[in-house]
Write a structure and sequence with these properties.
alpha/beta; three-stranded mixed beta sheet; 19% helix; 253 residues; L-arginine/glycine Amidinotransferase, Chain A
Length: 253
């Protein structure tokens, strides 16, 4: 169960953020509205939400998940693989010290963005991507071991981040799309397979028995409900234009 979340308000120059989506420029005013609705959804799931001020120096800073990994025993400040995002981690130590007594860090030449890390109980799957390299993944595994946790590496083929295409919903259920549907490392889970035409919907988040799903993906929503979950749709279409999804917008712990 989660009790808290940390989010960062969208930057006024978020339209200059990284993207390969070709979905057009995000509308800042609408993004602010959608972000507010996202925070409301987190609160309705029982979370106490800390809202950080926008950082106009970093257009992608609203995607706060990539800057840190929060475990039950420690916080880990990452080292983003995107050069333009490396400065985002500077304030994370101060922020996280309010909640964690143990704070670890991924060091260069290792890179790690927590969008590539999926927690399943005491185990963490780590995707190797254009943003997370083997050195960063191995550093994370060593940190996890010190706290009685474990980690393993997943090779990614077509997605930006691991959690772009897979999400763990607890109770041995896992939403998966594309390359992850038949991935050998996930055979032990009950796979909720998402069609390619709704692949964006695979990035959903479980919070205290509820599942937040992106608005506009009815087949994904129906499949998750058939698996026994209560769902709540959240419109994050402006953030999709920057390759961001529901999980990217918060740190939940």
């Amino acid at each position: 169960m989660f009790s808290k979340a940390i989010v960062c308000l969208p930057s006024s120059n978020m339209a200059n953020g990284l993207t390969a989506s070709n979905l057009g420029r995000p509308d800042f005013t609408n993004a602010l509205h959608q972000h507010g609705q996202y925070v409301t959804a987190l609160e309705e799931c029982g979370l106490d939400v800390t809202i950080l001020d926008a950082d106009d120096n970093y257009p992608d800073s609203v995607f706060i998940e990539d800057a840190a990994l929060l475990t039950p025993h420690c916080a880990i400040i990452t080292n983003p693989g995107a050069v333009s995002r490396k400065g985002e981690i500077e304030k994370m130590g101060t922020v996280l010290s309010q909640f964690f007594s143990s704070i670890e860090k991924i060091n260069a030449p290792g890179t790690l963005e927590a969008g590539d890390v999926m927690m399943v109980g005491n185990h963490y799957y780590i995707g190797l991507s254009g943003r997370t390299n083997k050195d960063g993944a191995e550093q994370l595994i060593e940190i996890l071991k010190r706290y009685g946790l474990s980690g393993s590496i997943i090779e990614l083929e077509n997605v930006l981040h691991l959690k772009t295409g897979v999400a763990y919903l607890e109770n041995n259920n896992m939403v998966a799309c594309g390359e992850f549907i038949s991935h050998p490392d996930f055979k032990k889970y009950n796979i909720i397979a998402i069609d390619n035409d709704e692949s964006y919907g695979a990035n959903c988040i479980w919070i205290n028995g509820n599942v937040l799903v992106a608005k506009g993906f009815p087949k994904t929503k129906e499949l998750i409900e058939k698996a026994g979950y209560s769902t709540r749709e959240v419109d994050v279409s402006e953030f999709r234009k920057l390759d961001g999804g529901l999980s990217c917008l918060s740190l939940r712990f």
